[in-house]
Design a protein that fits this description.
CATH topology: Metallo-beta-lactamase, Chain A
Structural class: alpha/beta
CATH superfamily: Ribonuclease Z/Hydroxyacylglutathione hydrolase-like
Number of strands: 14
């Protein structure tokens, strides 16, 4: 598996490229912008974008979708409530990219269309969970929904799981379960 991280200038949003070496297919997670750096990486690695995975619908995570679609024939896969969705995804669905299989995890709260994507020991959590924080929510009810979904769904993936957030550095389930002040019981 090829995993590459790009820090985009749009609100310092993290974008990730997952590539299957065997098939040359790629998934692009949260393309907040489409730029030459991303395009050059795909060319250099001989990867063809097959699917765009959106963790939620905020423009700092989706702003590059239309430009990407003009240059590649990738399908946009997201929660059914995401206005850009072409392939709707729900809890437990599996997205196949060549030999890679990403499991879909619904983590509502930051937005109602929030998804995470898990593969092996990696989870791409969007703005649900950050190193030392959680995504912003509009009210207390949404905050409780978010923290419950993090505890029940993301933490259940295992302490060694590496969390790749939508902003900021990577972390692990163990670190966030033990030290995240928003998630302490």
């Amino acid at each position: 598996m090829i995993l590459e991280h790009f820090l985009l200038s749009v609100n310092e949003t993290n974008c990730y490229v997952l590539g299957c070496r065997e098939s040359g297919q790629a998934a692009i997670i949260d393309p907040g912008e489409w730029n030459e750096q991303l395009a050059a990486f795909l060319r250099d690695q001989k990867l063809t974008p097959r699917v765009v995975l959106l963790t939620h619908g905020h423009t700092d995570h989706t702003g590059g979708v239309s430009d990407l679609k003009r240059s590649a024939s990738a399908t946009v896969a997201a929660h059914p409530d995401n206005p850009l969705v072409e392939k709707p995804l729900r809890q437990g669905n599996v997205v196949e990219v060549g030999t890679l299989k990403l499991k879909v995890v619904e983590v509502p709260g930051h937005t109602e269309d929030s998804l995470a994507f898990a593969i092996g020991s990696e989870v791409f959590a969007g703005d649900a969970l950050f190193a030392g924080s959680v995504g912003g929510t509009p009210d207390r009810e949404a905050f409780e929904r978010l923290t419950r979904s993090i505890r029940e769904k993301l933490f259940s993936l295992g302490d060694d799981m590496v969390i790749h957030p939508g902003h900021g550095p990577a972390t692990t389930v163990l670190i966030e379960r033990v030290f995240n002040p928003f998630l302490m019981a």
